[in-house]
Structures are given as structure tokens and as C-alpha cells.
Amino acid sequence: IRDRLRSRGLGDVYKRQQYACLYIFESKEINNMAQTKAHKKKRRSQAPIALVYFITMIIFLFVIGMLALYALREFGVIGNDDSNSDAGIKSPVYNTLFVRVNSKGVLADATVIRVAPDAKKIIIMPVSAFTVSGSQTMREIHEEGGMVKLEAAVADTFGITIDNYVSLTNDAFENAADIVGGITYTPDEELYYLSQDNDENDIAIPSGDLTNLSGHQIRLICQYPVFKEGRNGNMKFLGTAVTMLINNAFQQTNITKDNLDNFYNIFTANSDTDWTSAQYKEEKLYLKDMLDQNLTPAEALVPEGEWTDDSHFKVSDKFKESVQTMLKDTAPSAAEK
After folding, report:
1. Torsions phi, psi of 139, nearest 5?
2. For residue 157, which of 10, 30, 252, 279 sits 20 to 30 Å off, Cα-Cα?
3. 11: part of which helix (H) or strand (E)?
4. 10 Å Cβ neighbour count for 77?
5. What is the DSSP letter of 77?
6. DSSP assignment of 164-224, as one string?
7. Element (H, E) at 230
């Protein structure tokens, strides 16, 4: 009996030990499961924060990259080589306003030059400083509002979009003209003027006399009162001279190609301009292509209208219509037809 009781007691102890071990094991399992759920919940709560941080970094890097790319392109560091690509050019026709400003900062004259590669033409439109826009002359508008206001006035007066403007000093005008050798000119009337400054500024050319004019002489004739027509004669001569200079440049293909960068630097040195280096490099591609085609592309389109007095010129509606006809004839779509 004693042995049975002992063995039963030992069995009960053994079972209690098993139950105790099982309880401890289950408690650990339950605790581990609770910790695992807590870790998973913690990881889930951290995931959205990491995703937001990652997206923010991507957006930040993208913005910085785009700003850097824009700066590099704006300053012509990248994307503006001399390849045959015309990417970035709005149109293969562009209009530039060249404005000559004298040593006193006063508007002397201006010229709109339209380069139309598809039409194989370069249109020269001289603009007198005394052309009226609204109630003011171009000279007065330039004096009050600078190049920006002058560009807007020219565009509005003639109904033409100006892509870029460039102010030229007297020296810049003369140096650019001398690079292509000036012009050979035969006046229909005697041109005579004695300067009060020095003999170098005198003009004395007999009527019908074939004369080689330097950049300095061209500039003086543009501004001196040497024509019977008065300032209308100066405006006509400006159109003739610039047309001849450009056609001379196209007859000297290699010299002109080698000096395209030089021309740009001369024009923009000490200039009030919005013509960037990147824009010039793109437009240069068209000019080089035109120079290879043995062209004589320049044509003058001289404004017509009424001089109400010696200091006010009003452009006629008929001439404005002729400008619109020219724009259509030299547009890319018209040239392709």
C-alpha cells in the first residue's frame, strides 16, 4: 500500500511538473507573439515616414537638378554646340533690333534685321530716331524708357515681333563695317559737310563719284544733314548701307564665318541687350548654312510716310501693309511652298 501511494504521489508530482512546464512554455509563446506584433506595428508605423522622406528627397534633387541645367543652358555651357541640331529655336526666322546710341547716350538711328533662312533672305528695315509712335518719337521713348520701351514701340509701330535688341556704340558700328571692307557707294547728289571737330569728320563726295566708304564715313553720312531730302535721306542711306554691308559679308564667306563670333562680341560689348550667347549660338547655325549657299540675301525695306516737320516722321498705313506682306513672304510656311 505504501509503495502504491508513493508511486501515485510521484506520478502526481510529475504531472504537476509537466503542467507547470507547459504553462511556462505557453506564457513565453504568448509573450513572444505579443512582442512580434508590437515590432510589426512599430515597423508599419515607421514605413510611411520613410516613404515621405524618400519622396521629399527625390523632389528636392529634381528641383536642384533642373535649376542647375537651366543655369548651364542660360550661360551657354551646355546644349549649344555647333552641331546641326536646331533644338530650342522657336522659329528659323528671327528679328533683331540694332540701335545705334551716340557717345552722349542719345538714340541716333536703328535698324530691324530679319533673317529668314528658309526664304534665303535678310530684310533690312531702317528706323529713324524721329519716327513717331503714339505721341512721342523713338528718340524720346528711348530717353525715357530705354531699350525695353523702344523695342515695344518699334514692334507696335511696324507690326513686327522683335526677338532681341542690341544697342551699338559708334565704335561698334564702325568696327563691324570695317571687318567686311566697308561699302562702295555712288551718291545721286553731292554730299558735303564740314565738321566743327576735325578734318577726319568732314564729308565731301561729288555726285556720281564711285567712293569707297569706311565704317566711320558710313556712320557720319547716316547722321549728317547732307541730303536734299533731309533726315529721310539719312534713313534711306542707312538702309542702303546696311544692305550693302551684309551682302559684302556674304561675298566673303570664309572671312565672315571666321568673324561671326567676333561680330557678336563687338555688338554686345558695353551694350544694353537681351541677346544671350546661347541664343546667338543657335542662330549662328542658320547664318553659317546661308553663307554656304552663295547668296546675296539682303534687301532693304525703307519706311514710307509723312514728315510733318524735320523732327517727326509718321509711318503710313500703306507701308505697314507692306511690312505684313513681307512677313508672310518670308515666313517658314511661305518659303516651303
Report:
1. -65, -45
2. 279
3. helix 2-74
4. 12
5. S
6. EEEEE-HHHHHHHHHHTT-EEE--SS-EEE--SS-GGG-EEE-TT--EEE-HHHHHHHHHS
7. none
Closest CA to 127 of 319, 325, 260: 319
265, 164 Cβ separation under 8 angstroms: no
Antiparallel, parallel or unpaired: β 298-300 and 121-128: parallel
DSSP code at position 116: E
Residue 130's pLDDT is what? 98
Spatial distance between the Cα atoms of 296 and 122, rounded to a whole number of angstroms: 9
Tens-place pLDDT, residues 224-264 = 999 999 999 999 999 999 999 999 999 999 999 999 999 99
Answer positive or negative: Cα dihedral of 78, 80, 83, 86: positive
Distance CA 246, CA 113 (A): 10
Contacts of 173-178 with CB under 8 Å at 24 or more apart are: 173/100, 173/215, 173/218, 173/219, 174/214, 174/215, 174/216, 174/218, 174/219, 175/215, 175/266, 176/215, 176/245, 176/263, 176/266, 176/267, 177/214, 177/215, 177/218, 177/219, 177/241, 177/245, 178/214, 178/215
Burial of residue 288, with CB atoms counted within 10 A of its CB: 0-12 exposed, 13-18 middle, 19 or more buried: middle
Distances (CA, A) of 159 to 135, 156, 233, 274, 316: 17, 5, 23, 20, 12
Cell of 111: 535698324
Of 208, 229, 237, nearest in space to 307 by CA: 229
Q: What is the mean pLDDT of each run of 10 residues along the chain (337 residues)?
A: 49 52 52 54 56 70 70 54 39 90 96 96 98 97 98 98 97 97 97 91 96 97 97 98 98 96 96 96 94 97 97 98 97 64
User: Residue 89 is placed in which grid cell?
Assistant: 529655336
Q: How many residues does the chain have?
A: 337
pTM: 0.73
Radius of gyration of the chain (CA): 39
Nearest to 149 by CA among 20, 4, 266, 272: 272
